[in-house]
Amino acid sequence: MNSIYNLSREELEEYFLSIGSKKFHALQLFDWLYVKRIKDYNEITNIKKEVIDDISSNYSISPLKIVEVQRDKDVNKYLFELNDGEHIEAVLMMHDYGISVCVSSQVGCNMGCRFCESGRRKKVRNLETYEMVLQILMIEEDIKTRISHVVVMGIGEPFDNYDNLIRFFRIINDQKGINIGARHITVSTCGIIPKIEEFSNIDMQINLAISLHAPNNKIRDLIMPINKVYPLDKLMPCLKEYISKTNRRLTFEYILLEGINDSEDCALELARLVKGMNCYINLIPYNETNNIEYKRTKTVQIMRFYDILKKNNINVTIRREFGGNISAACGQLRSKKEEV
Ligand code: SAH
User: Which pLDDT value is given to residue 119?
Assistant: First the structure.
């Protein structure tokens, strides 16, 4: 059965009209679902019984199953079981500026980035919108606090699940519902050009992050197969266009892999590549995985890389690391259950 958490408020309005009922019920239902957070349609008091019966026979209100929570000092990792028995993960992080949740967008991933654990399992399917929405609702219920920031940086390539992703944004951003500000939402992509173009036209100020990880095609081809489809000489102009169209600042993520992309020459080349763009670079210390091909860059070299970018007037930060102890760190969102 379809889930009620799949529908944006506009879609609910259409639904109510289609059954000959009133449009304003959409607002009421949104309030029950996302403000009062009911678990059962029977709790609804201001919509007629016949209408509720129609909703409940067409749309399920069931939650996801949380099968495991690993808790560490300022990070929790949640393992969810989906209705078809698949598993996905989400990670909650407590920052000084608020609480963020890193959500998954697919079961598995087809992008095949060499260094990433998530991609070791091929895509099984896209997540439906409700499966993304419920990651947020259920974590908020668990911690009994509101989440302030959402990043779509869990398992999957969000722009390979574009329509469900945008509907997810509409629902969590809706001021009459969960109401997470667009500026507090970030989506990360490995660089799917047609979707970046589409994304530059949407009417929400959501942040975009690009997994860059290399300053030239030669290195990027080696570690990110998607670069053969959308190489840097096409991606960079597309991103410049995105910035000028949206006036938004772009984030580049750059994992430092020892001996691969972390030399001083790479830093200089990277500085030249992004020169003049309204952007900042987030350097990510690589989380070592079972994949012995890649090693984490030593801290002194990370600092050298950082300094070169700084000297070249590039905005740069080094990502704070969360969740190393509970394998909730970037790229490690892969449940032990599914280990092959
Ligand atoms: N597919 C999207 C969303 C995943 S985001 C994307 O590629 O952007 C997850 C981020 O973590 C990406 O920047 C990814 O490249 C990075 N990552 C993957 N494995 C990692 C690892 N072992 N250590 C640090 N970062 C990693």
Answer: 76
Q: Which of 104, 165, 330, 334 to mutate to test the pocket of ligand 1 (most atoms within 8 A of CB)?
A: 330
Q: Which atom of ligand 1 is found nearest the CA of 188?
A: 8
pTM comes to 0.96
pLDDT tens digits along 85-110: 999 999 999 999 999 999 999 999 99
* Residue to mutate (ligand 1; options 103, 161, 213, 284; most atoms within 8 A of CB): 284
Give 340's pLDDT tier (boundaries 50, 70, 90): very low
Q: How many A from CA of 157 to the centre of ligand 1?
A: 10
- Pick the catalytic residue: 13, 89, 128, 131? 89
User: Is 330 labeled as catalytic in the residue annotation?
Assistant: yes
Note the helical H segments in the chain.
Answer: 9-18, 25-30, 49-58, 129-143, 162-173, 193-199, 217-223, 226-229, 232-246, 264-274, 299-311
Digit-coded pLDDT (tens) for 147-159? 999 999 999 999 9
Residue range 53-67: mean pLDDT, rounded: 97
Query: Closest Cα to atom 13, ligand 1: which residue?
Result: 211
CATH architecture of 65-338: Alpha-Beta Barrel (3.20)
210 Cα nearest atom in ligand 1: 8
Q: Establish whether 113 is a catalytic residue.
A: no
β-pairing verdict for 98-102 and 149-152: parallel
CATH 1.10.10.410 fits 2-60, yes or no: no
Q: Domain map of the chain by residue range?
A: 2-60, 65-338
Q: Whose CA is nearest to atom 4 of ligand 1?
A: 153
Mean pLDDT of 110-138: 94
Residue 161 pLDDT class (50, 70, 90 cuts): very high
Arithmetic mean of pLDDT over the chain? 95
Ligand 1 atom having least distance to the Cα of 152 = 3
Residue 311, CA distances (Å) to 267, 270, 272, 276, 305 in order = 11, 12, 12, 14, 10
